[in-house]
Amino acid sequence: MASLILLAIYIGIAAFGPCLAPYASSEIAGSPLEEPGRLHLLGTNDLGQDIFSNLLCGARATLVLGFLGALLSVLTALTFGTISAYYGGRTDEIISRIVDIMMTLPGFPLLIVLVVFLPSSIFIMAAIMGLLGGLQGIRIIRSQVLSISRAEYIYGTRALGASDHYIMSRHILPGILPLAAVTFINAAQRFMLMGVGLGFLGLGDPNVVDWGQMISRAYSNGGFALGLWWWLLPPGLAVVLLSMTLALIGYGLEEEIEPRLKNINNSKWFTNGYARNN
Amino acid sequence: MRIEYLAWRIFYSLLAFVISVTLSFVLLHAMPGDYLHVILPHLAEKNPLATELFREQFGLDKSLFEQYVLYVLNVLQGNWGYSIQYGLPVTEVILEKLSWTAVILLPATLLSIFIGVLIGSYSGWTSGSLGDSFIFKIMIFLGAVPSYWWAIFLILVLGFYLDLFPLGGYMSITALDEGMKLHDVLYHAALPIVALTLTTVPGVYYLMRNSMLMIVGQDYILAARSKGLSEIEILLRHALKNAMLPMITLFAMELAHVIMGSIFIETIFSWPGMGFLTFEALRVRDLPLLQGIFLMDTLIIILANIAADFSYPLIDPRAKVGEIG
Amino acid sequence: MLEIINLKTQFPSPDGLVNAVDSADLQIEDNERLGLIGETGCGKTVLGMSIIRLLPPSTRIHGQIIYKGRDLLNLKEEEMRLLRGKEISMILQNPTTSLNPVLKIGDQIAEVIQLHKDCNRKEAKTKAVEILAAAMIPEAPKRADQYPHELSGGMKERVMIVMGLASQPSFVIADEPTKGLDSGTKAEIIRLIRDMTSGRSMLMITHDLAAAGEICDRIAVMYAGELLEMASAKTILHDPQHPYTQGFINSLPSRGLLPISGSSPSLIDPPHGCRFHPRCPWAMDICRREHPQIIKLEKGHFSRCFLCA
Questions:
Q1: How far apart are the C-alpha atoms of A6 and B78, rounded to whole Å?
Q2: Could you say which architecture CATH assigns to the domain C2-87+169-308?
Q3: pLDDT by residue (tens digit) across C20-37?
Q4: Handedness of CA C153, C154, C160, C166 (dihedral sign)
Q5: In angstroms, rounded to a whole number, what is the distance separating the alpha carbons of residues C164 and C174?
Q6: ipTM above 0.90, yes or no
Q7: Do B228 and C116 touch (CB under 8 A)?
Q8: Does a structural domain hold residue A15?
Q9: Which domains does chain B have, with CATH numbers?
């Protein structure tokens, strides 16, 4: 619950950050490297930009990237996973093989190489992440769809002459939506961390402020040597908190949809069996 | 069954490698302007000899298709081009950095597997207990923290404020006079190793816990109980070995994450390994070096996968190479 | 030797409380082999597991299980553990999953011997090979060095039996030792069990009435968590009094494979009255209304049926 509120705050900041910020993100608002004070809540960087304002404005890039990427990745996984499982046969074979091969490639380096060569924009980054990340999801969705469509009611409806479209939208989709939601949250979390990482590596969109760039700037311009915590920590902390929030939501969702699995475990008689009961 | 499986795995690996070679070729050539002609002047400044070799090796005047064939042949022979930044063959630069990465990656991997197996098997064995849910929740938090945060945090707290460890680098300035000393390098490696361990422990933990959860319900554990063995004897003799099986693949994959796992940590600690090299290559857009790193990483992952497949039978008697089953 | 008094074993499930064993009374004398037969899911395995106390922690067990004067259900887990394998041992069903796949056969047997027979690892291993050989397992030293997956199903079953008896326990629970074996192997396994358990007490859980008839002195019939009939093996096979036992015998391949109509009832919400009445060809009014008590027909022959009253 607390994590939902936190996420809402983050989304609020991402939406209205630039309005809330006391200074514009690129504005030289004070003298360089000021300590946190009343004028500058979190001090200023080497150029004299207000760190608090940058922090608020930077939220947007990270959140947009994460959620957009996650959306794309879930859509990819859903589309191909369902097609693969539902039609089976050669379609399934081809999709599964492509996934197999792609999974052998190192994901993050591939992402870096692609991002370097393609024009840098949040949307392109989100697209690449979404596609690469979606590949992994295909397997998960595929096996879930398989287990649902093996269930007898599908055979029942098929025997009654229901169309593929009807079966998919009425029986299969509702069955995989919870799983898709978990996948979405987990992907968003991963992509946000990656996005900040890419920003740190100097691969972010140069026209947008993001937390990764802020860390990178602090790192390469002497933040450590001088021990300027207000320059180094806030963007990092912002990411960590966001990531934990999403992780908790993801975990909560999983708990919500897993009980079926747990019951199966409990009802297996001899699991975990030392009888302490007298 | 098993031979067929291994054959497929090797086939996929080859295919994946061909794809990544093709990909790096396409990307290098799709750059604005002719990549090779852009690079040559840079290279000439640093190493005139390299330019000649380069021109000859990659057949710059030939058709695109011929260039591709030449490129593939070169890659297979280990000629991966020349780094703009260093003016040296890419493979040479990479191999030197790889050993530095190994210095932190190997201990960190061993450490995280040790810790992860320990708490993961405890957690899985006592699943549902207070201890288990406590560790599980901590791991959710730990798993959500990105590697760069650990690096920043450790440097700032232990390096800067407490002054216990260096802020980065791999040896002290005094080493310039006295030569490199092992304990000095280890002293510099300590924090990166800790940071790397912290980032990899949650993954090992989850895998181990799940693996243990599967095993707790197995009949042979019940059989062990019916023999009158104590819980700890059952855990050590019967459960652990089975639960450790997936660790082989994990170990291989961890080692293969030469770049992924350590790029931020190495960069922030200025540790001269593959990760830092990647960062530098990105900063100056040293594309030949970058594609080399990418190829090397693909190669390492592929080799690690194959190694894991083949070492599996050493631990699991059911999976003898070439045997049916 | 062993006396079970009013045993009730229940465990929670998502659909409600499962009454796996309901008010069971049973005695096993010294050197007596008792067969417990019934359909799959009637609670016979749970009854066995209740004795050796290897059920999940959420299980509720009521009643008394008196073994050599001590109530097993009142023992602390640690005391119970010291009895397991040494005094009371169990031959689990499904040898394929009950043998640890990554440990050698010899080591798995030696483990029990070492634990209970006060000897070192090497002696235990030698002993393990000896008893493997005694169980007519060809090439015993070689077998001991093999892993479970290298053995045939019948061979694995032999190993299970040897393992269960390696520490020479005074009471053995054998769970479906003849399940899934072809008839030749089954005959050998039956002979092996008979030889190796002579001079011991045994509870043999099985749905194989013929096997129980060959091995056991007495047979108890279980249905939906309840004991329905109990008598000497000969009486059960040739003169059964309970309609369920009669039906069970008629369903044997040698008696024409006539299955009992209907399916076994749920253990969560068993039928009112006699639990067998929905499937009983002679069901009367009273069978629907009232729950029959177990009654003594003659010496050593008990039945839970209004027809026998």
A1: 51
A2: 3-Layer(aba) Sandwich (3.40)
A3: 998 899 999 999 999 999
A4: negative
A5: 8
A6: no
A7: yes
A8: no
A9: 92-283 (1.10.3720.10)
